Amino acid sequence: MVKGWFxxxxxxxxxxxxxxxxxxxxxxxxxxxxxxxxxxxxxxFGAGHTLDIYYAAFRIPDxxxxxxxxxxxxxxxxxxxIERFEKGKEEGRVFxxxxxTVFFGAMIVVSAIAYFVxxxxxxxxxxxxxxxxxLPELIFSMRIxxxxxxxxxxxxxxxxxxxxxxxxLVYAASPVLYNAGIIAGLVIGYPIFGVPGLAIGVAVGAFLxxxxxxxxxxxxxxxxxxxxxxxxHDVRAIVLTSLPRTFTLSSNQIASFVxxxxxxxxxxxxxxxxxxxxxxxxxxxxxxxxxxxxxxFPTLSRLYYEKNLKEFLEKMIASARxxxxxxxxxxxxxxxxxxxxxxxxxxxxxxxWADTRLTAAMLALFTVSTIxxxxxxxxxxxxxxxxxxxxxxLINLISSGTIVALGFLFWKIYYTMPFFHYFLEDLLKTGxxxxxxxxxxxxxxxxxxxxxTILHWVTFERMYRGFSKPVLATLFHSFAAxxxxxxxxxxxxxxxAGIFPLTKxxxxxxxxxxxxxxxxxxxxxxxxxxxxxxxxxxxxxxxRKIWKTQVPPAEVEHL
Length: 559
Description:
The chain has helices spanning 2-9, 16-45, 49-56, 59-67, 74-87, 89-125, 135-145, 147-164, 168-193, 195-211, 214-219, 232-264, 270-305, 309-336, 338-346, 353-367, 370-385, 390-416, 418-428, 439-463, 468-496, 505-529, 533-543. It is 80% helix and 0% strand. The protein is mostly helical. Helix 12 packs parallel to helix 18. The protein contains 23 helices and no strands. The chain is globular. It has a domain at 49-230.
């Protein structure tokens, strides 16, 4: 039975839409567990001090992951693996062994340094806890979480090999186990060890993230080994290619780091609200943007390697169109139903109405940037498929700098200009419960992401003329239909408010669900009237029953 399960998730999948949808299914399962995780955290702690410690403990391990861990990112390694294994399996093995050895050593050194300097570093980078009684617990939890960047980085290395073989389900199942480990830490670890128990769950989840890929890697004879014969010219090539990407991710992570640092100086629970809202707005990104980008990346790498730029552009257009087609309605629905979404998913236990209203307002601001975030992932993957990492780096550097600058600017304006303060709270209906200053962080982030999207789009269009026209056509169709859908859902909220009891979580859920259902019907009708091409393509893919798609046998290894 276990062998059959591993054979199933190790199947090869080549179709773009089929791979994207199957990745999306596993992403949905992972998101369900992530929402269960957040629900349990919200129920147990609410948006308060304890949860602020837990989320703050992630900051330094996350930064290590996007810096050192980026050396073995699938986005960087996959084209190299394709090239090396095309020359022969032994050539590919020598390459992977060398990269594995260097990564292992680098991660041990960096993690050890972070471990020992933590008492000095943490209060300086998260100043809100400098004189807090929870500082020792924060430092201890952070030290435990240092295991996660090592395991996740190793998982990235393995995922390059699984994606090279088009085993997307192995790759997609990893985040499911990651979230399962975190939930186990909350349910089992916290009652025994407190907040460090939550950190243990994170480390266990990261271990499971890599462990699920090991059986396939071993069965294919691809498991990397330590080697003293490292080809340093290969390492140098990877490092030179990775550095711009490392700086790109690091700049984004530093921007988020600064926002969380600012949140630590705000009201208790601000870090928690920031993370809850950010996690919720990541749902469309994970389901759509990441799924399509992951599915198309091996194809883009192969097409560029073969110099088939015409089909390369066609794949990019198809992916961008479908990302917009799916993301736009979800974005509008999230804005309209933000309170219902937050209250249904998080509202219970210690997560009260004040937390709900503040998180819903943050969600609305974050959600405006979700389409941009999904397209950025696609653009970046396209540049990486070409081996061009400097352009994303420069664009993200500008974007991250903008986010940081706006964060401090809005911070100053919020406390010196009451008009801005009251306008933001009235616009997003947060009431007068306090803690509204955290909204400026989401506003700064969204503006930075929109700028990032525009710069990536313009750069790609200059390189590949003809990209924008079909994609903009989809954007206008989807936007028009989504606005009509959003208005229908908004009107439905008013109607169902008098039908379902809004003092109960199930009543709020039913109000939101019924309103969303009506909105979706209106959306489909509108798209049919507009003769939307994406809707017709989605129907054709689903009509083929993607879960019954004929899959080539595992022995077929060519791309």
